[in-house]
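One example given next:
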Amino acid sequence: MAKLRKQNIFNTTTAAIKFLLFWVLVVIQVPIIFVLPRKWAVKYMPIFMWFLIKLAGIKIVVHGKLEKHRPLMIVSNHISVFEIATFPSVFKGSFVAKKEMENWPLVGWVAKKFGVIFVDRRPSHAHDALAVVQKAVQSVKYPMIVFPEGTTTNGAYVKPFKSTLFNFVENSNVMVQPMAMHYRYKDGSVIDEQTMADHFAYFDNKKMDMGPRCKRERSAFGQVFHIMMLGGFMVEITLLPAPPLGGMDRKQIADVLQKIVSDKYMELKDKKTN
């Protein structure tokens, strides 16, 4: 079984070099992204993300199949900022993300070119946010990926899904496909919950209902560095069949999808491989 590699000067230096190369790669892509029309930038995103995940030492394993129906919305649990790189490289789709990300230096601009839709999560802006998501899902030919928990977690469990995002799914032609995602070491062995919290969570999760806490709050940049200290890892993605949602209201839809994702995640996250 794999263990967290020792934090010595060699490993720290290696992680620092990879971290620097990671952001250099992001920066040198800016001129390419700048000249591409948005529709071509969205198609280029999987290529760009593929280089980032290779540099970070990420192995991606996918189980199940993507639904062919369009419009399609994928709902998933959310642990790490690296999901912004891994998912598009697999699904050739884009995201619905929090409004704050739009103002992140460089990252926000690149995300916008890649077709990411930003929404204001404050209750007073719920109506406008819903309209933005609905228009995006209905107008594009690629899947839109949504994280209905509304935030990242420490990987100990799946938080309740916010029902507002499912308002427009009621009595619509939008198919919603649930997806469970979890992390392992590259050899397939389990990453314990404290390591998950220390390296994948980027906040001091005092408000989490259960599970270990990240020892200190860090920025998204800090999270990238800490993940690279692992020396590589596996992202295991399980695509589940889209359930029938006809006749349900948004709260029922959110509860049904959350249970599907949560049950599969809890089944897989502590499952030992042969």
Summary: The first helix runs from residue 9 to 28. The first strand starts at residue 58 and ends at 63. The chain has one domain: 10-267. The CA atoms of residues 185 and 233 lie 5 Å apart.
